[in-house]
Structure formats: C-alpha cells, structure tokens
Design a protein that fits this description.
The chain is α/β, with parallel strands linked by helices. It has 11 helices and 18 strands. It has 2 domains: about 20-95 and about 230-430, 3-Layer(aba) Sandwich (Aminopeptidase); about 100-225, 3-Layer(bba) Sandwich (Glucose Oxidase, domain 1), CATH 3.50.30.30. It has helices at about 30-40, 45-55, 65-80, 155-165, 200-210, 270-285, 305-315, 320-325, 350-365, 380-385, 415-430; strands spanning about 20, 20-25, 90-100, 100-105, 110, 115, 125-130, 145-150, 170-175, 195-200, 220-225, 225-240, 250-260, 295-300, 325-330, 340-345, 370-375, 390-395. α2 (about 45-55) packs across α6. The longest helix is centred in the last third of the chain and has 19 residues, at about 415-430. The radius of gyration is 26 Å and the shape is elongated. The relative contact order is 0.20.
Length: about 450
C-alpha cells in the first residue's frame, strides 16, 4: 500500500470507555490471568513461518490480475488448507490499465524527455506538428495527418485529447503552463483517445517558437505496451468457527491483508509481510477455543484503490456486516527500516480494535501503541460500513517503499514478532470463551477523506 496522509496526531494514551455512548472493549481481566491468556497464544507463534512465507511471496512482483498474483492466491489457499481450513477464493473483475513499457518522442530528430498520460492508448505516429492553443474549441480545424501541440490549462487533459482527435489529430503533445513536468492522467479509458504525451513548459515553448517563425516541425511519437481492459483478481477467505455451537456469540472478527504489489516491486514488506502474518495467525488460532468466528482474508488489487476489499464488503448482506465486530488490517508490518508501529482509523477516533490493541501492547510492551487518522488501506471499506477497523503499519515508511529494493533482506523478525503478538492477543482477548466483559456495539464511522494518488500513497 501507499504513503498515506495523516489527518491527526497519534493518541498515545490508553483509553477505555465509550464513544458516542457505545461500549468499545471488553473489560480486561486481572493482570496475572490476562498474562496467562496472552502466553497461550504467544507461545504458538513461529516467526520463522512468517519470514519464510514472505520469502516465497516476494520472489516476483504480484501485480493485480497478473499470473504472479494468481500464483500467490493459490499459495495462500494451499497454506490455509495445510492448516485445516476450507478456504474460499472470491473472484472479482475490475477495469484496469497497464502503463506503456516504451515511450519515445523526437522532434525534428531530437529526442526529448517525455511522460505518458495514464490511459493513453499505444501507437506509433510520425507527422507534422500543429499548435492549437488550449484546444478548448477546435471547430473548423483540420488536423488530419498531424500531431497536435497543446498547452495545459482551461479544460481537462482528456477533453483536450478528445477535441484534437475529433479534428483528425493522430497524436497529441501537451506542454506545461508552468515549470516542471506533467505527470497526468486522462481519468479513464476512452475509445476516442489518441496517443498522448507531455512536455515541460520550456520544451513546448521552444517548439512553439519554431512554429511561430514559420518553420515546419515534424515529430515522431511512440507509445508501446499501454492497455486498458477488464481484469480479474481474487480474494482468499478462510474462517475459524467457534468451537462450541452452544457458546457461539454470532460475532466475527476479520484479520486482513492484501497480497498484491505494485509493478517492479517484489513487495516483501508491501505486503507479503501482512499476508504471511495472516497465514501464521490462522495456523495459531485453528484449534484455540473461541466463542467468536475469526475470519482470515487476503485481498487482491489493493494497490489499485482497495478494489478487492471494497468488493468483499460491498457484497456482504447487511446482516453479515452487522455480525462483524472488528477488522484488524495488516499492511507493511515487517520492515527493519521503517519507524514504530502505529494504528490508523478512518475517522481518527478510538474503536474496539484500537482499545483491544492498546491494552494488549500495554500488557506486552509496557506502552500503548498510538493511533491517528489514516486511510489508503483495506481497513477503509470496513470502517465506512460502520465496522470498528484499524490499520497496523510502521511509520514513517521505509525508503524502499514501492521500489525493487522491497526485498526479504529488509525484513525484521523482531518487528514481525511484535506485531503478531499484539494483534493475536488483542483478538484472543475478545474471542476467548472466558471473556465475560461486554461485547462491542458498533457505530457508523466517518467516510474516509483520504485521496488516492497513482502509486504514490499508501
């Protein structure tokens, strides 16, 4: 997942009580008894299992809808089966875009630095250039057999391309109206688009100066590998049911992660770490008596905008949403080069997850894990549905984030162990049979105000 925007400072103190009058957490048991319960879970965690699963998953990038992502799905399914589960693979479709692998622009034989617009189609065009200003109204222009040179401003990039193409242009070059490069998007696929790239203001004005002096200027534009189409990805779901039907409280805790990565990044920390931890805690909890269902889920296509988790939550009936007491979401939980563990909630307010986890971390480490507001991960759809949810992540992020350097050698077993202990004991504190405290009531969480920027925010 992405570099996220923080909307509140971390709340480092442990808080028990109510929000809006709703009880958030079960009353903690006495310290000695609670420690014994913690050890019952902690003693079963094998951090080497987590590390080895990370190593397996990070051998290649797992881009959503790719063969590599599907191979990861199959691996996760087989691991769940190995631990005694009957996992479900949930298939979903989305409209996706593959960025071009080749982008080249030459003007009068000189190669220029350029960037493609997201959703540009592929194409190879060699043609004279014609300047058409802002391309707001090209009625009466005949750009047949030409490449349109357009200045940024007034209307969207997409409208500029559509207008130029409607006038007959075979390609479009948009130059900036200020210093710096344009790293832009057309907003979505459109059959009316033609190949389009950007130029800096300086390069665009240099070409315009030639055209204004009466020179004929020719350009060659090459974009290869760009593709927009329907894609298929998958979620993997495994459930540990309550051991005794007579003691089933009817509630569910979800422990989630995403298994996809960004192009070019092996994704050891982002997010093989979270996925491997979900697998290990599924193993740990398989035969532990609980009165609460624990549902383990890994999501596809998170990096493209939480597509898998949104599909999962949006396709749950309201009766099922009402049963989910909490969502613990793990994303980037093992980097040696990242900062300390933090939690993020959609609205920045405490909820059942933060309170259980703060109590757990206080017992285990002598300090409560802080939380603040933050989106951009798979806890968001749960929070927006009114389910208490929080993201577990280290902050600040490691410098290897979303790069080819996100590899197994950057993973810290100590950090993996710490997060696994905090999360597992927090879940068990709620789900165990002998927890006699009040179970949670949910209240609607605010819709996330976080914005998604292509391959930039987590």
């Amino acid at each position: 997942m992405k570099k996220f925007l923080l909307a509140a400072t971390a709340a480092a103190t442990l808080t028990f009580g109510t929000v809006g009058g709703a009880a958030l957490a079960a009353k903690p048991a006495e310290t000695g008894f609670q420690s014994a319960m913690d050890q019952r879970i902690i003693n079963q965690i094998n951090v080497d299992n987590i590390y080895n699963d990370i190593d397996h998953l990070q051998q290649t990038p797992r881009v959503a809808a790719s063969e590599e992502e599907y191979a990861a799905v199959q691996y996760i399914k087989e691991k769940f089966e190995e631990y005694g589960y009957e996992p479900e693979i949930q298939e979903f479709e989305f409209f996706g875009y593959t960025a071009p692998h080749t982008v080249e622009l030459t003007v009068d034989g000189e190669s220029l630095n350029t960037l493609p617009f997201t959703y540009t189609p592929s194409g190879e065009v060699t043609a004279p250039l014609e300047y058409v200003g802002l391309a707001t109204d090209l009625t009466g222009h005949d750009l047949t057999g030409k490449i349109a040179l357009v200045e940024r401003g007034a209307i969207s990039f997409a409208d500029k391309v559509v207008n130029a193409a409607a006038a007959g242009a075979e390609g479009v070059i948009i130059f900036n109206n200020a210093a710096g490069v344009i790293n832009g998007t057309l907003g979505g696929a459109n059959d009316n688009f033609v190949p389009v790239v950007s130029l800096t203001q300086a390069d665009g004005q240099a070409i315009l100066s030639k055209l204004n002096s009466g020179e004929e200027v020719s350009a060659s534009l090459t974009i290869l590998g760009a593709e927009a189409s329907m894609r298929t990805s998958h979620n993997v779901i495994a459930s540990k049911k309550p051991n005794n039907k007579n003691k089933d409280n009817g509630q569910v805790i979800t422990l989630t992660s995403h298994h996809d990565s960004v192009p070019g990044a092996p994704g050891a920390n982002d997010n093989a770490s979270g996925t491997a931890m979900v697998l290990e805690l599924a193993r740990v909890f398989k035969n532990v008596p609980t009165d609460t269902e624990i549902r383990f889920i890994t999501f596809g296509a998170e990096e493209l905008g939480l597509i898998g988790s949104r599909y999962y939550v949006n396709n749950l009936p309201q009766s099922e949403i009402n049963r989910i007491a909490a969502n613990f979401n793990l994303d980037m939980v093992g980097s040696r080069d990242a900062g300390d563990l933090v939690m993020r909630t959609v609205n920045g307010q405490p909820n059942l997850v933060t309170e259980l986890s703060q109590a757990s971390s206080l017992r285990l480490n002598g300090a409560s894990t802080p939380f603040a507001q933050g989106g951009s991960s798979d806890h968001v759809p749960f929070g927006e549905a009114g389910i208490p949810a929080a993201l577990f992540i280290h902050s600040p992020l490691e410098p290897w984030y979303h790069t080819p350097e996100d590899t197994i050698d950057k993973i810290s077993k100590e950090k993996l162990q710490d997060v696994a202990q905090i999360v597992s004991t927090a879940i068990y504190d709620y789900a165990r049979f002998d927890n006699k405290g009040p179970k949670a009531k949910k209240e609607k969480e605010a819709v996330s105000t976080q914005m998604y920027f292509e391959e930039s925010l987590k």
